[in-house]
Each structure stands twice: as structure tokens, then as C-alpha cells.
Specification:
Elements (H helix, E strand, L loop, with lengths): L2 E8 L1 E2 L11 E2 L5 H21 L5 E9 L9 H12 L6 E6 L6 H9 L4 E7 L3 H7 L5 H13 L5 E7 L6 H14 L3 E6 L19 H17 L3 E4 L2 E3 L6 H7 L3 E5 L4 E4 L2 E5 L3 H10 L20 E6 L2 H14 L6 H8 L3 H12 L3 E2 L4 E2 L1 H5 L1 H10 L1
Parallel strand pairs: 1-4, 1-11, 2-3, 4-5, 5-6, 6-7, 7-8
Antiparallel strand pairs: 8-10, 9-10, 12-13, 13-14, 15-16
Bound molecules: iron/sulfur cluster.
Length: 391
């Protein structure tokens, strides 16, 4: 196994945003002592899980994501140090912590920076307070600016901001303002996501008419492509832009078929062609890690030498065809596209794809040499991907 990443999931949020049904538990209404006890138990369990795995990994990235890791406040600091030591993560490696504005103080940011976090990912979503409120976000744009300034003061020189477009009630002018506000700050990295209303989220009950039509959502994406590129941002992945050299190394591992170990409740791992995922809900995860038993059901997928994968709930080995299709789709997410020679050497090729690529090129959705999505293809990426799954 070569270079790899470690992802740690923190399945806690203050309250649930209206579009979200991620594997995260709202803890805002828990009494403080119960909440503190839950966090302490969870961090101890993840540390134990990290010890139970015995993988021959050489991680080069560490990502603390969620949920809202910043809810764990200063408890995250010793935890981060332990994890870095456990996996041999050094200062030259990428260590990202996700945070939500107004859940993290300047003192906490300084302590995280001091402990080795060198990249911060902030969920901003919009700079319009009425839209933030409508989404069920707990922060205003002014709260975000406080967190942003505190992050810079704490020495974070690599900050990523997440924004959402296609929100109910959001106009193209609102979106343009949000982009202008963000570009004025010049973050090193920007992720833009089209709103997807997840099953089980509060907004699932909204009528279709509440959401902007597809053409408007497409116009918002096109506007972002234009403005970010004009401001010197490199569009390197379907939904991600970075200043030169500031691409997310951790996420690049996902898009290039790299290995990663996921720790914590509901975390997913990809290890040498096996995909495994941890138990959910958190209570079940905690119970399994406490028992330390190795679930024999997945011993076909995971060698015994890899320690006790105590929290593993499910797993699958990918067939060559699955791996190949997945690798092609992930490769097409990258704006640089797919290096066909290297791809063929690693995964082989499916004969049916030549026909699909010919069809897509004729429709103006992909370019060949190298194989990559066109501007139109970026807008219809999911339809393009589907052809490789069905093909
Ligand atoms: S969007 Fe993020 S902060 Fe909001 S509920 Fe989902 S995981 Fe939590």
C-alpha cells in the first residue's frame, strides 16, 4: 500500500440544517454534561479504533470532518496530536479540520493550528443572512467574518470555504453577491455545491416549485466558473477551485482511487480495492469498539493482519469492471480529465466505452485527448457518468 489518507468522522451537529440528512446527530438540546460525556466517550472510542487497525499505511493527509468537528472545542486538540502521532503525520502533510462559523473561538483555532492543523474548511454556504436562516444555519455572515478573521490571526494560511447554490429563494444576483463577498476575502480554496435535498431532510417536504429551475442553477454554476477563473482560481474538479498549489490533497486521493481509512461512526474506507464502512448510529459504533471483536462476516474482505476492524458494519470487494467504471467517473470529475494511457495500464478498458465516448463527443459533452468534460459536459456531468455505468 502506498500513500493514503485518514478521515475521521465527527457525527455531531448543533442542529440539523434543513437540506441535510448526513450521518450526524443533533446535540443542541442535550444538557451540557451529557454532551460533554458523549464527546469524551466518542473521542476515546475513535482513538481506540485507530489503535485496533494495523494497516501498512503511509498516510500523507489527515481530515477531521463531520458533522461539525469544531463542536468538540478544545477536546479536539489532544485528539489531533494523538492521531498525528499514531499515523506518522508530520507538519509537511495536509491536516484539515472542518468547522462551522460561530462554533469555534480564536483560542480554539490557535490551539488547533499549534497542534498541527494546517488547513481549515469552513461551511459558509451563503453570505446572505436571510438565506442562511432559511437553510437552518446557526450563523450569520458577520459570525462567519469573525471566524474567518480569527482563523487568519491563528495562522491558517490555507482556508477552504463551502458555498451552496440553487437554494430556494436565491436569485442569480444573490449568488453573484455571495461570490463577490467570498472572492474579496481570497480564500485559498472554494467548494461550490448545487443544492441536493437529501432524503429524510426537512426540505424533502417542500414542493418542487420552491426550488429554482435547472436552467437557473446551471446559470449560477456558469457564472461561478467565469468569476472564479477571472480571479485566478484554478477549476480543478467539478465542484472545486483553488489558488495554484492549494488543491485539496486529501480529496484528490478520493478522486484518483487512492486508499483511505475512515475512523468513527459511519465512516467509509477504501483499502486496496475493498470498500468497508463503519457502524451507525453512534451508540452502535461505541458498543462495537468497546467489545473489540473482529466481525468475521467481513474477514473475506479484510486480511487478519490488518488488525481488528471492530467497528466495520459492511464491506464489498469491487470487481475489475466496478473499479474501472468508478475510476473513470472519478477521473472525469477532474477538469484535467483522464490520462488514457495511464488509465489503461492500471485498469484496462471497456470496449463499450469507445462507442459511448464517440457519442458524447458528438454531443459536445466530452473532449478526447485527453478525455475530459466540456463546459456543457460539466453542467450535465451526472448524465455523462451514467453512460459509463450503463455502458
Ligand atoms: S450540513 Fe453540515 S452542519 Fe448542517 S446538519 Fe449537515 S453536517 Fe451538520
Amino acid at each position: 500500500m502506498s500513500s493514503a489518507g485518514i478521515y475521521t468522522h465527527f457525527p455531531f451537529c448543533q442542529q440539523r440544517c434543513h437540506y441535510c440528512s448526513f450521518r450526524s446527530q443533533a446535540v443542541g438540546s442535550l444538557p451540557e454534561d451529557e454532551r460533554e460525556a458523549l464527546f469524551a466517550e466518542y473521542l476515546a472510542a475513535v482513538r481506540k479504533e485507530a489503535e485496533l487497525w494495523q494497516l501498512p499505511l503511509k498516510p500523507t493527509t489527515l481530515y477531521l470532518g463531520g458533522g461539525t468537528p469544531s463542536l468538540l472545542k478544545l477536546h479536539l486538540v489532544p485528539f489531533l496530536k494523538v492521531l498525528k502521532q499514531r499515523f506518522g503525520i508530520g507538519d509537511h502533510h495536509e491536516v484539515t479540520v472542518e468547522a462551522n462559523p460561530a462554533t469555534v473561538t480564536g483560542e480554539e483555532l490557535a490551539a488547533l493550528r499549534e497542534a498541527g492543523a494546517n488547513r481549515l474548511s469552513l461551511g459558509l454556504q451563503s453570505t446572505h443572512n436571510n438565506l442562511l436562516e432559511a437553510c437552518g444555519r446557526l450563523h450569520s455572515f458577520e459570525d462567519f467574518l469573525e471566524t474567518w478573521n480569527a482563523a487568519r490571526r491563528a495562522g491558517f494560511e490555507n482556508v477552504s470555504l463551502d458555498l451552496i447554490y440553487g437554494l430556494p429563494g436565491q436569485t442569480l444576483a444573490d449568488w453573484e453577491n455571495t461570490l463577490a463577498d467570498v472572492l474579496a476575502l481570497r480564500p485559498e480554496h472554494i467548494s461550490l455545491y448545487a443544492l441536493t435535498v437529501e432524503e429524510g431532510s426537512r426540505w424533502e417536504a417542500l414542493p418542487q416549485g420552491a426550488f429554482p429551475p435547472d436552467e437557473e442553477v446551471a446559470a449560477e454554476y456558469e457564472l461561478a466558473c467565469e468569476l472564479l477563473e477571472a480571479d485566478g482560481y484554478l477549476h480543478y474538479e467539478l465542484s472545486n477551485w483553488a489558488l495554484p498549489g492549494k488543491e485539496s490533497r486529501h480529496n484528490l486521493l478520493y478522486w484518483t482511487g487512492g486508499d483511505y481509512l475512515g475512523l468513527g461512526a459511519a465512516a467509509h474506507s477504501h483499502l486496496s480495492g475493498f470498500r468497508v464502512w463503519n457502524s451507525w448510529p453512534t451508540s452502535l459504533y461505541l458498543e462495537k469498539v468497546k467489545k473489540e471483536s473482529r466481525p468475521l462476516a467481513y474477514s473475506w474482505a479484510l486480511p487478519f493482519a490488518w488488525g481488528k476492524w471492530a467497528a466495520t458494519e459492511g464491506g464489498e470487494g469491487l470487481s475489475l469492471e466496478d473499479k474501472r467504471a468508478e475510476a473513470l467517473i472519478l477521473g472525469l470529475r477532474l477538469i484535467r480529465g483522464v490520462d488514457e494511457t495511464a488509465f489503461r495500464a492500471r485498469y484496462g478498458w471497456s470496449e463499450k466505452w469507445d462507442e459511448e465516448i464517440g457519442f458524447l463527443a458528438e454531443k459536445g459533452l466530452v473532449f478526447t485527448d485527453p478525455l475530459r468534460l466540456s463546459k456543457q459536459g460539466l453542467l450535465l456531468a451526472n448524465q455523462v457518468f451514467l453512460r459509463f455505468l450503463e455502458g
